[in-house]
Amino acid sequence: MTAVEMTKNYVCAGCSAEKVMSKRLPRGWKRKEQLFCPACWGERYLLRAVTFGVAAPLDATWKELDQALHGMFAMTTSCANWMTTKLALSDNPRLPSDTKLGKMPPTYLYPEARQLFPSLPSQSVAAIEQAVTRRYRARRYDAVWTHRAVLPTFRYPQPFPVHNQSWSPEFEGESPAISVRIGDRRYRLRLKGGARYRRQLYAFRQMMAEEAQTGQLDLYRTHDGQLLAKLVAWLPRPPAESAAHGVLTVRTDPASLLLAVNLKDEKIWVYHADQVRRWVAEHRAQLQRWADDTKAEARPVPAFSARREAASRKFHDRMRTACYQVAAYVGGYAKRRHFAAVNYDDRERRWCAEFPWEILRSRLATVLDGHEIEFTIVKASAGEKGKNGAALAEMEEHEES
After folding, report:
1. Is-contact 157 112, C-beta < 8 A?
2. Which segments of 338-400 are extended strands (E)?
3. How far apart are CA 62 and CA 361, in angstroms?
4. CA distance 103 to 101
5. CA distance 298 to 361
């Protein structure tokens, strides 16, 4: 077979763009009845994830399901940690003669991982490799260059990823359900519904009607043992309500979490979020009190270890929820005022240094993309990078990768 016969000409149904590749679909291109390039696909669909609680297995007992999931969670955890170690071993360590962090060497761990973890589905191994590589790249600057952080560690139970061809949505009466392959058999799981899940149910019905294109499914457990199913899908974009115009500038401020100004630099919106700083101060003080009580006599495991872990988990959940709420407020305001674009600047962080600004930035991008509002991030200058340390460098490295 000649090289010409091994290639194929792909044509986008939206913009008629052409790409000559091998017989494999080009990266980023999608097929749903017709073929679309990444730009045209993004104009028509949104990548979203909806999470349901698993109510009960329909064709098995909880004991059988737990045993099957325990094996998958154990293998995904071991595989993820093994891949992290292999990535670190193949990476170039920092030498005294280095002036900047070099590029990460290319790695391909799939063949060896398939031999070490034969019970994991091939698509799950590929998904785990992609997720582990992304996380390693995000932590690479601090772990390899500044040595301010250790390598990522994956704790049991790690989510079990399922390829979109190995699961399907369905309805059991009026309740949503999924049919998913776990190990060597297929399970039918009834999902939780009701008014609490109205947003998830709307997306689920779009999947059932084949208006959305389903993606990966993740099965995982929370810290309290609840089994959850995260369904990823490309959902149709809602039609634009009216013509948008203008640019909204959203920035951080020493006296409040966020404020927004118009083109005349007039303050038109502000969110103080005083409760967030109160949560941070209370949590910081409580951690210090526990640290004071962690004497040599109380080691290796202090009596309050479980309470400290639960308090830390509650604090991080609070902060993440706050980020999601703030992003929804900003997106709702920009949509209500018909702004076409949002410029975001979070270089000023004196309001609360412990606030998870990276989560807020990422969530803002997702919310504004759903409203079809352009989102631009003001980059930090070289002097500000040195002032704010490795956090900014890690964020920008993660965005570029």
Report:
1. no
2. 341-345, 374-377
3. 39
4. 7
5. 40
pLDDT digits (tens, 9 = 90+) for 162-207: 999 999 999 998 899 999 999 888 999 999 988 889 989 999 999 9
- Own/partner contacts of 286-294, CB < 8 Å, gap of 24 or more, are 286/311, 287/312
Mean pLDDT of 368-385: 75
Give the span between the Cα atoms of 82 and 86, in whole angstroms.
6
Calpha distance 329→89 (Å, rounded):
44
Residues paired with residue 46 on neighbouring β-strands, in sequence order: 235
Q: Residue 307: which residues within 8 A CB-CB, separation 6 or more? A: none
Tokens 């991080």 identify what position? 316
pLDDT at position 25: 77
Q: What's CA 223's distance to the chain center, in Å?
A: 18
- Give the model's pLDDT for residue 241: 63
* Measured distance CA(161)–CA(219) in Å, rounded: 7
CB atoms within 10 A of CB 355: 22
The alpha carbon of 285 is separated from its chain's Cα centroid by a whole number of angstroms, namely 30
The dihedral sign for the CA sequence 52, 169, 204, 134:
positive
3-state secondary structure 6-45: CEEEEECCCCCCEEEEECCCCCCCEEECEEECHHHHHHHE
Query: What domains does the chain contain, in order, with CATH numbers?
Result: 7-36 (no CATH), 47-237 (no CATH), 247-400 (3.30.420)
Residue 222 amino acid letter: T
Q: Residue 270 and residue 293: Cα distance in Å, rounded? A: 40
